[in-house]
Amino acid sequence: MTDLATRRGLETDVYQPAEDSELLADAACSRLPSGGDGGDEDRPLVLEVGTGSGYVAARVAEETEARVIASDLNPHAVGQAADAGLEAVRADLVSPFADGAFDAVLFNPPYLPTDPDNEWDDWMERALSGGEDGRAVVDPFLERVGRVLAPEGVVYLLVSSLAGVEEIVDRAGEEGFSAAAVADESFPFETLTVLELFR
Ligand SMILES: C[S@@+](CC[C@H](N)C(=O)[O-])C[C@H]1O[C@@H](n2cnc3c(N)ncnc32)[C@H](O)[C@@H]1O
C-alpha cells in the first residue's frame, strides 16, 4: 500500500496526475458524447469534484463536447485548474451547485485508508487520505451527489480495492444508484475501478 509519508516527499500542495487520474479520464472521455455539432444549450454539463491539477477536467473538455466545471476544496488546486484554462470553483463536494444541474459528475476521491496517528493536516492529506476505512470522503459524496444530477445523469467514480469496492457499491445502492464497472486496472497492491453510477 502506498504510504502517505512516502507520497508526501513527492508531492506539492496539489495532487498531480497519476494512474488513477488517467483511468478516470479515459473512462469518462470514452463514454461522454463527442463530436456533436449542437449549440451550447445541447452540450452536456459535467462537474469534476476534487479536480486537483485539472488534468481529468481538461481531458474531458478537450476530448468531448461537454462544458466542464472543475471544483476542489483546496484553493491551490482551484488556482492550478483556473491557470489551465478551466472554469474552476472552490467547493466542498457538491455543496454550492444547483439541484439537477449536471449530466455527469466525476470524482477521483481521496481513498487511502489511513491510521489516524499517521495523518497530518495539510492539503496533500486531504487529497490522499480516506480516513480509517478509505471511505470518509466517498460516503458523504454518495449521499449528496444525487441532488445535483439531472434525471438521466451519471456519476463516474474512481474506487480502489483498498477502500472496499463492494462496500462502496452497497452504499451507492442505499443512495438509490445502480453501479457498473466500466474500467479497471490492477497494480501489485490495489485494483482501481471506475464505477458508473446511475438511477
Ligand atoms: C486523489 S486527488 C484527485 C485529483 C485529480 N482529480 C486527479 O485525478 O488527478 C483528490 C482531490 O479531491 C480533493 N478533495 C478532497 N476532499 C474534498 C472535498 N470534501 N470536496 C472537494 N474536493 C475534495 C483534494 O483536494 C484532491 O484535489
From TrEMBL:
Residues 46-112 form the Methyltransferase domain. One of its GO terms (biological process) is methylation. The keyword Nucleotide-binding does not apply. InterPro entries: DNA_methylase_N6_adenine_CS, Euk-Arch_PrmC-MTase, Methyltransf_25, PrmC-related, SAM-dependent_MTases_sf. SUPFAM superfamilies: S-adenosyl-L-methionine-dependent methyltransferases (SSF53335). Pfam families: Methyltransf_25 (PF13649). One of its GO terms (molecular function) is protein methyltransferase activity. Keywords: Methyltransferase, S-adenosyl-L-methionine, Transferase. This is Methyltransferase domain-containing protein. It comes from Natrarchaeobius chitinivorans.
